[in-house]
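Reopening this one. Same input as before:
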Amino acid sequence: MNQSKIKRLYNDFTFRKAIWLAPLAYALHQIEETVFGFTIWREKYLHASQTLPIPVFFAILMGVYLAFILIHNLWPNKVTAWFVLAAILAMQFHNGIYHLVGTIYFGEYSPGLITGLIIYIPLSCLFFYKAYKEELINKTSGVFVFIYAGVLFWSFEFLGNAVVFISIIASVIVLIIYFLKIPSNSLN
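Same output, byte for byte:
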């Protein structure tokens, strides 16, 4: 494959197409965490246990990914892109940082570190870059979505599952209000 084909393939790989990689990355990350015992590591160092069974929480977050991605693919615009990007940055970029910091701070491999570093962080940067290049976000909204995603992730880590459910409900409410306020012909 020559350089022009690679460049064309990359240019055809839009934000709408790229974000479909997020659920796959999430599944691979969950496999690493499960196989190498993330819950045991977390209980050992952070004295935190999951209040929901891991498979239930996995299913909920996978549903959130798929819902936001589907909504953006059906109604591609800046608002739906922002919500997808917020979810991805919270669940992947900041999660990758969490595993890195945990590994360094505690001096023991945090299960999830490998996929966090080689899949989550690079893919999150790709999604962010694509959204910026396609003018779905600008510098201001990009900084805001990055900070919002960080607050969301770190709040979840310190406050628990309720943060996830509150943010999902709030996102749904905002999207419903957004879609009710705009004329149906401008959604396409």
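So the earlier flakiness isn't reproducible anymore. For the record, The chain has one domain: 18-186.
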